[in-house]
Amino acid sequence: MNVLIAESVKKTYGTGEHAVKALKDISFTIEQGEFTAIVGTSGSGKSTLLNLLGGLDTPTSGRICIRNHDLAGLDRKSLTIFRRRNIGFVFQNYSLMPVLNVYDNVALPVTFDRGKHIDHVYIRDLLTELGLWEKRKKYPNELSGGQQQRVALARALANKPAIILADEPTGNLDTGTTVEVMGLLKSSSRKYNQTILMVTHNESIAQTCDRIIHIEDGKILRDSGADVKKGGEQ
């Protein structure tokens, strides 16, 4: 089942001679439970793509669908609600609320969504799975970088989203903690059949994912998932 479809996506900033083509005709699909890395050098367009997939920006042309919803067809309020319910974000800088403890940070996306009941059992299980239950009353400044990133991952999973978008989630972490966080992402993907799309510039990290999409100069250079699908069709 396809969770995400990107179809002929283009993004241009500016006009005329000042126009910058950040993305040039990007197309791919992501299936349920797939853990995909988007790899590219700085300025290749990978972060621009992640922002478009997350509904934080709009493409100049093309179509992005998540769970059969075309993001361009949603008004601002509907998009905000859809994003909150269907997309989890994990950022390099964690983006935790300093005035909230671990438990309340994790429950925050559900708290914002008044139409959804907080599943306290699920959140407790998440925190236990990620080794955070005993830290649930601690505040972000009382945690290590790896622990903060685990809280960010738990928060992204709290709403049981269609897809998690992770932007360089290990960028600020040491080698040992990087291995730990990648292990947690992979185990979360398997346990919850969670679809994860991760931007990274680190090839060795990308190699641990199910699929790698290489982007250079705003275009897809290689897609290991496409190679597998072609091979399966022969």
Q: How is this structure best described in words?
A:
- This protein is about 35% helix and about 25% strand.
- A hairpin with a 2-residue loop joins strand 9 and strand 10.
- The protein is an alpha/beta fold.
- It has helices at about 45-55, 75-85, 100-110, 120-130, 145-155, 175-190, 205, 225-234; strands at about 1-15, 20-30, 35-40, 60-65, 70, 85-90, 165, 195-200, 210-215, 220-225.
- Helix 3 packs parallel to helix 5 (about 145-155) and helix 5 (about 145-155) runs parallel beside helix 6.
- It has 8 helices and 10 strands.
- Residues about 230-234 have low confidence and may be disordered.
- The strands form 2 sheets. The protein has a 6-stranded mixed beta sheet, with helices on both faces. A 4-stranded antiparallel beta sheet has the order 2-1-4-5, with helices on one face.
- It has a single domain (about 1-230), classed as Rossmann fold, CATH 3.40.50.300.
- The two termini are about 20 Å apart.
Keywords:
single chain, 234 residues, alpha/beta, Rossmann fold, six-stranded mixed β-sheet, four-stranded antiparallel β-sheet, 8 helices, 10 strands
Instruction: Give the low-pLDDT segments.
Output: 228-234
CATH domain class name: Alpha Beta
Distance between the termini: 21 Å
Overall 3D form: globular
Our count of domains comes out at 1
In helices, the fraction of residues equals 25-40%
Structural class: alpha/beta
Total number of helical segments? 8
H/E series: EEEHEEHEHHHEHEHEEH
Domain ABC transporter: 4-234
GO cellular component, one term: membrane protein complex
Protein name: ABC transporter ATP-binding protein
InterPro entries: AAA+_ATPase, ABC_transporter-like_ATP-bd, ABC_transporter-like_CS, MacB-like_ATP-bd, P-loop_NTPase
